[in-house]
Structures are given as structure tokens and as C-alpha cells.
Amino acid sequence: MSPKNTSAKEDRLPQEVIPSRRMKTILSWKAPGGVFKKKDKEFWTTILSIAFLISVILFFAKEYFLIATIFALIFLFYVSSINPPQIIKYKITNQGIFWGKTKYEWQSLWRFWFQEKEGQTILDIDTHLAFPKRLTLPLGNQDKKEVRRILEGFIPYEKVGPDFIEKSTRWLAKTFPLESKKVNKK
């Protein structure tokens, strides 16, 4: 059989269409792993004073393990608050969102919105997963409008109001501040 006849037969056979499974990066950026604010001496003095007063009460109730737990948690919070978060690479692809090397597929993502924390723009994404329920991605120098335009092609933009826990936390922080507001002196 000549090569000319073989190609003519192949043209007449139905071809199976296989969708491309190649990953295509739409947008990527690097930013810190979370919002960081260095705590001052006044904050730690207030925290330790409150912990000491609670510990005295728990000491008379003979709750020694609870006292140890409180101070262990304070130590853990201290260690995590003195080191700034590491820089992470975030990617939006045609298959989902990458947080470092962890992939979250579009089917597991529910909705997204933006918020401001400590002067940084944060992208919040709710998921259908048991853990994590919400992804919080700092945008760094990325344009918020561009990120929104890309994400709206995959999941809906829906601004979520604060729930009971967030409202309670804000009220406590406002009513009983652990550090005073700094006033810029000129």
C-alpha cells in the first residue's frame, strides 16, 4: 500500500477528541504567608498580666494542667508572632489555585471576596472542604481588579459579612484593647 492511500483512509476514520489536561498558569505572584504585625512590649505585658490573674484563680481551683496549657499557648503565640511569615508562591491556573505546592481544585472552591487587614489586601476564598474552610491569600503587589476578573470566570464573587464569632472578636478587641493606638507625632 502506498503512503498516499494510507493517509486517505485515516482522514475518513472518526478521530477521538481528547481534551487537554495540561495545566495553564493564568496568574502567579509571591507574597507573605499571612498578615504580620509585630507586637510591642505593652501587648505582651497585658497578655501576661491577664494570664497571671487567671492562673491565680485556677491555682486555687487546683487546675494545674489548665495553667500549664494557658502558658504553653502564650508561648506558642509569642514564637509565631516574632517571626514574619515566609514568602509563598500563589498560582491561579485553569485547574485551580495553588498555595505553595498545595492544589485546591475549582470544584472544591465556593466563593471569594477581598478585605483589608493591617494595610494589606487579602483574598478570601471559602471552600467546600472540611479543612480548610477558608483560604486567606495576601495579594502582595497584585492588582485586585485583575485577580477578580480572572476568578469570576471560575467561582462567584460574593462579599460575606462578619459572622457572630467575628463580630464578637471585634467587639472584645474594641472594648478591651490589648495595646494602645499609636498616634503619629509630627
What does this structure look like?
It is a single chain. With 186 residues, this protein is α+β, with helices and mostly antiparallel strands. It has one domain (25-170). 37% of the residues lie in helices and 24% in strands. It contains five helices and seven strands; from the N terminus they run αβααββββββαα. The protein starts with a helix and ends in an 11-residue tail after the last helix. 6% of the residues are buried.
Helices and strands in order, then pairings?
Layout: H1 3-12, E1 25-32, H2 41-60, H3 64-82, E2 87-93, E3 96-99, E4 102-105, E5 109-117, E6 120-127, E7 134-138, H4 144-151, H5 164-175
Antiparallel strand pairs: 1-2, 2-3, 3-4, 5-6, 6-7
Gyration radius, to the nearest Å?
Answer: 26 Å
- Give the topology string: H per helix, E per strand: HEHHEEEEEEHH
End-to-end separation in angstroms reads: 92 Å
Quickly count the domains.
Answer: 1
Going by helix content, strand content and strand pairing, the class is alpha+beta
Main sheet attributes: strand count, strand direction, barrel closure: 4 strands, antiparallel
Coarse shape: elongated
Number of H/I helices: 5
The portion of residues assigned to helices is 25-40%
What's the pLDDT, averaged over the residues? 84
Summarize the structure.
The strands form two sheets. This protein has a four-stranded antiparallel β-sheet with strand order 1-2-3-4, covered by helices on one side. Strands 5-6-7 form a three-stranded antiparallel β-sheet, with helices on one face. Helices cover about 35% and strands about 25% of the residues.
